[in-house]
Every structure is written in structure tokens, then in C-alpha cells.
């Protein structure tokens, strides 16, 4: 395996290898499409596109009678030009429930919308190149996405969650034994997520050298690869220092391991492990809410807005390119705004 000095380089390398493998299973013209979008999209986006296109072309060659005698590999640009808006509408309906290797797969509106966006991108690319006569996907309406209820922690629930790492309750015997080993790490990790609102991928990518306690600064790598410095409170710093002090005493950690947060195997902790960690602690003390790392991010964003009343600061700290994303995901922002104007309009003079 190739050696990397950066978590994100390694992650992108692995994702790119998976995309390249998927490309060997797609029509040959897809190679040109992926070359064309390489500089405008991230490796993860490209991988998602490849997965979506594999599903789409498998559907065309197995479910649409006009293409039944064509393999995916032999599907040509001439065949692509024969794809109609009706075919795409049937595909969106097909996505509601279908089998792959005896596994039943379903897609909600969001999943359907993403796959339609992939198809639009493919057809738009070849239409602009004058290799197909039209982009029929423009005739298809994007599935309406129903907004989910925003789940976040209240102030007392944040306290419960942090306390759960230090004085756990309602855990299994096995979970208790792990907690004794990882207590300081888990407290520091949850404190950092709740105290900065960083994404779980940003969290696992942090190296020791990315932290500067002189200014309580933290260098993280955002989606897209941009690096920014965020700042954390003295409360978060205290937990990080306590964990790092314990980490430095561990003789089993390889000298070249730069990751801040480590697994029990003394390797960089993974995204999935952090998700399980959050679920383990939250279910024990907040059983009625399905808490994920993203919900901790929502909690921080909401609390930051309440303290600053500045949506642009919230958007900047969270790394949202569009402030509308901030408005969309943090319902409490609009709730608080509505409360603030409740007494502004007078019906009678005092």
C-alpha cells in the first residue's frame, strides 16, 4: 500500500481507485465524461457519479426493451442519444425499489434527485460537445424533497452526553470495558465536535501538528481540500490537553502515527468508528433522539447563532459556501427570528 502523510490524500487515493474500477464496468465514453469533470468535482463526487451511472446503465440494458440486447460495456453514444425523457422517468420510478444481487434497494426523494443530477450532468456534457442531439433530462422535474425535522441537542442533553463519557450509565459490560480505555479520547472527541461544529471527516483527519494551544487554533481540511483555521474554547482545550497527555504515555503508538484521535489498535480512528461512538453514548442517555455526528454539528450551529445572531458567521465557521444552506439546516434560526419579532408590531398604543 502506498504511504501517505495526509489522511485526505490517502482517502482520495482509495476513492479514486474505486472510481477507476467502476469505469472499467461502464460504457467507454464515460471515460471522456470523467476526464471532463475531473477539475470541477471532488474524488468523492466522481465516485458517486460512477455508482449512479452503473445503476442507470444496468437499468437501461435490463429493463428497457430497446437496449435489452446491448451490454453495458457496448452501450454507445448512439445508444445514449436514443435515451428518452420517458426512459428517465421510468428509471426514477424503478429506483423506488429494485434488486441487486438479491439485495432489495430503495431510494427516497433525495437519492432519486442525486441520480437524476448525475444523468443530467452526463447528458449536458455530451450535448455541449455536440455528440448527442439534445439533453432530454431537462424535461424531467426534480423529485420534490421533503424536509426532515431538524434534530439537535438541548443544553441539558449536551451536558448528559459529555457526562456519559466520564461517568457512563446504561452500557453493556463490553462497552464499560472499552470506556475505561477510551474515556479521555471520547470526552475530547465529543467536546471538539460539540465545541466547533466540524464535520466527522474533518475530525478524523486532524493531526497532532494541526493544533496550536497558544491560540486555541485548529487547522482542518474542508470538503474540496481547502484548509482553514478554527478556534476552540478553553473548555475544549482542557479536554484535548488531557487526552493528548494520556496519548503521549502510550508506548504502543507507532512513532510515525500523526493522527490526533486513535482507535484501540493505535491507528487513526475512522469515520464509521466515530459514528458508532456517538451512537453508543447518546442512546444510553438520550434514547428518544437518533443522534449522529451531524446532529452534533447542527447543535453547535444552532447554539452559535443564538449567541451571535449572525448567520454569516455561522455559515463561515461551519464551512457553508451558501448561507442558504445554513438557513435550511438550522431550523432554530428561523424559530428564534420569529420569536424575536413577536412583540414588534403593536395593536394598541400603550
Write the CATH homologous superfamily of the largest domain. Answer: Intergrase catalytic core
- What is the total number of structural domains? 2
Based on helices, strands and strand pairing, what is the structural class? mainly alpha
Q: Biggest sheet: strands side by side, in what order?
A: 3-4-5
The major sheet is characterized as: 3 strands, antiparallel
Radius of gyration using CA atoms only: 24 Å
What would CATH call the class of the largest domain?
Answer: Mainly Alpha
Number of helices: 15
Mean pLDDT: 92
- Bulk shape: globular
CATH topology of the largest domain, anyone?
hpI Integrase, Chain A
> What series of H and E elements makes up the topology?
HHHHHEEHHHHEEEHHHHHH
Detail the poorly predicted runs. Answer: none
Provide the helix percentage.
55-70%
Ends distance = 76 Å
Under the CATH scheme, which architecture of the largest domain would be assigned?
Answer: Orthogonal Bundle
Strand content: 5-15%
List keywords for this structure.
3-stranded antiparallel beta sheet, 350 residues, two-stranded antiparallel sheet, mainly alpha, 5% strand, 5 strands, 2 domains, hpI Integrase, Chain A
Describe this structure in words.
Strand 3 (211-212) and strand 4 form a beta hairpin. The longest helix has 24 residues, at 173-196. 55% of the residues lie in helices and 5% in strands. It folds into two domains: 7-139, no CATH class; 155-289, hpI Integrase, Chain A (Orthogonal Bundle), CATH 1.10.443.10. By secondary structure, the chain is mostly helical. The strands form two sheets. The protein has a three-stranded antiparallel beta sheet with strand order 3-4-5, with no helix packed on it. A two-stranded antiparallel ribbon has the order 1-2. It is globular, with a radius of gyration of 24 Å. It has helices at 7-23, 29-37, 43-63, 77-81, 85-94, 109-128, 155-166, 173-196, 200-204, 234-248, 271-285, 293-308, 311-318, 323-329, 331-340; strands spanning 98-100, 103-105, 211-212, 217-221, 227-231.
